[in-house]
Amino acid sequence: MKNIEVFKDEMINDLMDFIRIPGIAGKSEGKEYPFGKSTAEALDYVIKIADKMGFAHKNYENYTAEVTLGEGSKIIGILCHADVVDGGSGWSSNPFEPVIKDGEIYGRGVIDDKGPLISCLYAMKLIKDNNLLPEGYQIKMIIGTDEEENWESIDYYLKQKPQLPEISIVPDANFPVIFCEKGLMNFRIQKGDFNGKLNENSYISSLVGGERANVVPTNASCVLKSYKSDYSFEREKELLFHYCKIKNIPIDFSEGEKELVVSVKGKGAHAMTPEKGINAISYLLSALAEIKTSENEKSVIDFYNRYIGLDYNGNGINCNLYDECSGKTTVNVGMAKYEEDAFECTVNLRYPVSYTFDDVSARITKALSEENCKIEWGVCMNPISFNQESEIIKKLMSAYQSVTGDCSSEPISLGGATYARAIPNAVAFGPVFPNQEELAHEADEHYSISDLQRIVNIYMDALLKLCDRS
Known about the structure:
Elements lengths: L7 H12 L17 H17 L2 E5 L3 E6 L4 E8 L17 E3 L2 E3 L7 H16 L7 E8 L7 H8 L7 E4 L2 E2 L3 E4 L1 E9 L10 E8 L9 E8 L7 H14 L3 E6 L2 E7 L14 H9 L6 H13 L14 E2 L3 E2 L1 E10 L2 E10 L5 H11 L5 E9 L2 E2 L5 H14 L7 E3 L11 E3 L2 E2 L13 E3 H18 L4
Parallel strand pairs: 3-6, 3-7, 7-22, 8-23, 9-21
Antiparallel strand pairs: 1-2, 2-6, 4-5, 5-24, 9-20, 10-18, 10-19, 11-12, 11-17, 12-14, 13-14, 15-16, 17-18
């Protein structure tokens, strides 16, 4: 019987070539490239591997693709995505030129979600090559291309009314298995129409930070200007430097004619665990409270620090919620900008499963009701949960335990939003092991080759168990 050791080198090469295709979902480049050429290239690469392995496949106009083993009427699904977040800063190597160090592959997407996708393809290959797929079943992998953005690819797929799996795994989270996922909401706060007095010395002409809502921003900067040609920014520099030194936050100054550019460095992390990162936007706005500026900018700074600040549990907007099943609310401001006396920030909030969108949105609206601001709701997703004694949870736990020998870890809740929400009866399952550092969306994302081999065996066993064959 063939095992993954036979295909180890081939799998590693496939994954490293996959990582070299960035696949960052962006703006449409015409009908052929709905999220840009790079995501289409990433999807095409998956199809080429599937074709090499002898699987049937179908491309849904570069929105999504299906890869299928078998022709039975009972369908077991795998939901993956070929897109990744930006490389970001802080890497010790090029995030899209993967390297192997000490048995670990470093590269953007090796955990989220390219490594698991490739591992699942090889799990399907082992099932095929060893003739293990029971009669009457098929395994269908569904690959999206903008999971890190707005899920338009999976929405497009569902509108084509394909035959959906009866039950699915989503290899885009943690082991041993995810039995519930928090609710998620993205929203933009806009505040403007200021009529304050200008400061005679200096004022903030612009501020910008972050790249996307679901990543803790690593960079934020602002431009201080003066009406006086001979004005010195030494006092502002002194106060800002002193604050950042106390907080142990890197800050940099670049001075030009009648202006000072202030840049703050943070630490990236997934928005579901903002406490693991350092939010550059929040620290910049907190630092700016130390200096004198015009009333308009002071209003923005005070507004932000009152309702968001350095907190990541939603205290300022009355959303510090908790339940035993899924824990506390988390809040991440992923993007912000201020220009022409108008401020806006984009917030990614994840709330416990026992609450609803209406519960949380009402709290936010009420908290901000006395402010001159506007709230625009973006992509929002209801929480999902499974009974821990349900058949699918028990079978996935069994697959995990039989390969790893770990019988002490329990099903867990997740703050992340996976494709498990996209179709019925889908459960997030791996690839991050208990006590293993979660590096998705972070600098130096890496995953060991031995664990890639191990998850092939876990996914193969899980797929067979879901086919009622252990």
